[in-house]
Give the backbone structure.
Amino acid sequence: MDNIQHVTVGLSGGVDSSVTAYLLKQQGFSVRGVFMQNWEDDDDDGYCSIKTDSLDAIAVADLLDIDIDLINFASEYKDRVFHYFLEEYQAGRTPNPDILCNSEIKFKCFLEHALNHGAQAMATGHYAKKVVRDGVHYLCKAADQNKDQTYFLCRLSQKQLSHALFPLGDITKPEVRKIAENLQLPTAHKKDSTGICFIGERPFREFLQKYLATQPGLMKTPEGRTVGEHCGLSFYTIGQRKGLNIGGQGDAWFVAGKDMDNNTLIVVQGHQHPLLLSGSLKMKDLSWTLPEKPCEGRYTAKTRYRMADAPCSLKYLDENHAQLVFDTPQWAVTAGQSAVLYDGDVCLGGGIIESSC
């Protein structure tokens, strides 16, 4: 921090990045904003917020008296994130594009742009902390545990973290809103985005059907009883309840598995059905935030963003595969999602869930 003077901030048009830019100015940094356009296939439809977000980002930059650049990374996003996203869904898995977007676009393309244009660091509005000890950059949970976003930053490397600043790490979301209100920022009361990164909040199945072919098939129970029809295995995820349209009485129905060979969706009744619970998982494509990979042993982990840390044991299967064994079975562990490992408040990284058992 002592050697950093120039910081480039990713201004998304939301309240978090707006307050991030303000806080950095207050701390004496020379601040420049960048609005990243990472999607343009259908940026003129009613679901894409790029135009509104860019205007909000420009308005915030004007109010804070900082320069802002509008940079188009749509080609890089399509090549590095969206193609993988479609391949995973086509294979019946459920990817997390936000994690890949952070590691490949925000903290790679954007970081390279910032460094090439005179910045010594980049900052984002993520709720996370960075602690530096003995030259090692530790990615740590934010003070606002309800908003902590280290799960989405789990694939950042030491090099990426060394140039990253997270000014919101020590304040809460209500405090961020209050700062924005006091400054009369145009984003002060803007709703948080909950859609796919840079694609917006749109009907997800309808969106996927623009890119993936539909192949209808049968919904069956584990015992082989047909209870309905699906519109294509790519459009469902493990643990899904809505949109199954299975009639009858009794407990709610959930997606519990996919038989890709027979194009069959396996469904079960009851939230706690044994097929929805997993005592362990195997993960691949390991990526760690620290210089050395974690030792085998006891940690906690998340298999999805909105869940409590689950105590578990880590065991390596080979150089790029590991197993997590949980103290208590975890619900709807989903292939393609990320399993993220924690040592207390330190996010260690993790891997892509390959299978559960």
Notes: DSSP finds seven helices and 17 strands in the chain. Residues 131 and 138 are 5 Å apart (CA to CA).
